[in-house]
Amino acid sequence: MTPPAPLTPSTPPRRVRPEPALLILEDGTILHGSAFGARGARLGEVVFSTGMTGYQETLSDPSYAGQIVVQTAPHIGNTGANAADMESSRVWVRGYAVRDASRIASSFRAEQTLDDLLISNEVVGIADIDTRMLTRRLREHGAMRGGIFSGAALETDESELLEQVRSQPAMAGANFLEEVTIAQPILLQPEQEPVATVAAVDLGIKGATPRQMLERGLAVHLLPATTTLEDLLALDVDAVFFSNGPGDPAAATAQIDLLRGVLDAGLPFFGICFGNQLLGRALGLGTYKLRFGHRGINQPVKDLQTGQVSITAQNHGFAVDLPIEGIHTAPHDDGRYGRVQVSHMCLNDDVVEGLRCLDIPAFSVQYHPEAASGPHDAVDLFDRFTELAVAHRAGRKES
Hints:
Blueprint: E1 20-25, E2 30-37, E3 41-49, H1 55-59, E4 67-71, E5 75-76, E6 95-97, E7 100-101, H2 114-120, E8 124-127, H3 131-141, E9 144-150, H4 158-167, H5 177-180, E10 186-188, E11 196-201, H6 208-215, E12 218-223, H7 229-234, E13 239-242, H8 253-264, E14 269-272, H9 274-282, E15 286-303, E16 309-321, E17 328-329, E18 339-346, E19 352-357, E20 362-365, H10 381-398
Parallel strand pairs: 3-4, 4-6, 5-7, 6-8, 11-12, 11-13, 13-14, 14-20
Antiparallel strand pairs: 1-2, 1-9, 2-8, 3-9, 10-12, 15-16, 15-18, 17-18, 18-19, 19-20
């Protein structure tokens, strides 16, 4: 019997030494890691997201315009990327920081790797850094200006890179609306006969939002953020929606004036996230910047009327300033809009998570009931919006 041939060890795959990259915070913190995605330099506000899944929805959320996102989940990219999971036409984050970037995509739905998606959208990323330490620093000291540098950008001295980080404008006062909004109005029709028609002002809207409306039989006029009140009223809609979006709500003066015109016209209103903050400012309330914001898909929110707790998706760095308890008179123009109360609160830190107007048909929430990657605990808010639109249409017919 011929003895078996001796086994020879296989040659291990050749590992390519990763290219270096730096993440620098304005307080002087410097993290050394590996280049991920595009190469170059990107500056922005450094924030963290606690989402365990849905990284592609995070990347394509226009609310992240102007920001560098740090993922707290350690392993990112294993399911790759595909066109179906994009919540907008492109990736909006300026930079992306992860601990362990998957080198392969292990999903039958994947059409490209996450690395390829970042490269095609010119997003500079960094991997192989201690994201836990970075997150703790942002929690303790608040969101900071920062930058990710790789490739030719590393030829510059670190002290000069730090100066670039510190010289960029802060998020307070920033306005990205004309950057993220659509260029022209679009009419979206449901498959069945519309039960009502609404205007959705795009302040950085995600694809899941009009889908929720269309599923409920609403025809949707998707409008640019620069739409005038005259143009909006000419559409003869039954209700108005303001979307999520990036930046400081105090800087969105034109949109606040537009919303006041909507309220003056008696149209039902529903706002999400940035839309919630703009409702607050339209009512004469203040807004303020949170220390590190709420970003992720695991934020507990309590409905103060029913006591029900929902797990919600959130992405915001500003909040409405209004006492949680009691009923208040909206201060704008000597109480023109009547009474308002906080409808929802965050159980982590008591931040206002929703507003309910008692004398006009307007309400809003700070979180994202339409989050495509979940959770979907509060998606029935679109049912409430639809009911208001249908009732307004019926009332107009009777009169």
